[in-house]
Amino acid sequence: MVGGEDKDLPWIPANFLALPPHQSDLATAGAVLIPVPYDSTTSVRSGARQGPSAIIEASYGLEDYDWELDLDVSQVGIHTTPALEPHTGNPAEMVERVRLAVEQHLSPERLLGVIGGDHSVCIGSALAHLEVFPRMSVLYLDAHADLRDEYLGTAWGHSSGARRISERCPVTLAGIRSMAPDERDYLEASGITALGWPPNPGESREAYALRLTERLSDEVYISLDLDVLDPSLMAAVGTPEPGGMFWLDIMAVLASVAGSRRIVGFDVSELAPRDGPPACAYTAAKLIYKLIGLTAASSHSPIAPVLR
């Protein structure tokens, strides 16, 4: 009936996984996601600002039930905030804006994830987490070292994320396949652990993951640039680098960390959806859901899901 009640019509919620209100309410959510559509510091191909919305839309096709974990991950409750408006005029102010947004929703009793956007979103998010988890370390998964003190006129861009975070807390780089000479020099002088990819000759993905995990503290923040994945799996990034990780490789790393450490937060960034097939957005959404699921299933996590 025109103008009548429509409460029985099926509506698609505009949040991650298209969850109904009782599973996406902020008050009861075990996980919170903050979309940050910002890519003002990209240096090769822009488009990461479209990543958060593409990931959220792709997540509508995910199954709530994860058969590998035997867990309906959505039962933890996943709240998606509105997208954070970017500050395009000043990268330092954007870092602060992300920090304040994360601080507003951060709690020791929930997992918070930022969906970028370019990888500079990691700086504000990690610094906010550090205030709540002062003993945390950061696992920085990226094809690039991101250790430049300054690049393209700013010290707060996507090429300086690991550098800025390492000035405040321990950082372990993994998946690295590219760096500049000044980054190599800083790496050697600072003593930061950097694990390149592929693994050492004869080393399994599980052994690589264990070697990486042993370098982390009990509380871990994970910062994941999607270009850590091989371009044949993840073409939709601004700075693709050949020779990267595949799905089982990255899952081995995340499972190893979740199995023996407490994951306190994360960011996933750099999806530029127009630069690759639609499957890339789905892969990114699945990766985020896996991160939440592995954290929820871990005995080290404060999230209390309804198992099975």
How would a crystallographer describe the biggest sheet? 8 strands, parallel
Strands ordered across the widest β-sheet = 4-1-5-10-9-6-7-8
Oligomerization state:
single chain
Beta content comes to 15-25%
N-to-C SSE series?
Answer: HEHEEEHEHEHEHEHEHEH
Describe this structure in words.
It is built from 9 helices and 10 strands. With 308 residues, the protein is α/β, with parallel strands linked by helices.
Task: Please tag this protein with its features.
308 residues, alpha/beta, eight-stranded parallel β-sheet, 9 helices, 10 strands, globular
Topology of helices and strands:
Blueprint: H1 21-24, E1 31-36, H2 51-58, E2 65-66, E3 71-72, E4 78-80, H3 91-105, E5 111-116, H4 121-132, E6 137-141, H5 161-166, E7 171-176, H6 181-190, E8 193-196, H7 205-213, E9 219-225, H8 247-260, E10 262-269, H9 279-297
Parallel strand pairs: 1-4, 1-5, 5-10, 6-7, 6-9, 7-8, 9-10
Antiparallel strand pairs: 2-3
What does this entry show, briefly?
The protein has helices spanning 21-24, 51-58, 91-105, 121-132, 161-166, 181-190, 205-213, 247-260, 279-297, and strands at residues 31-36, 65-66, 71-72, 78-80, 111-116, 137-141, 171-176, 193-196, 219-225, 262-269.
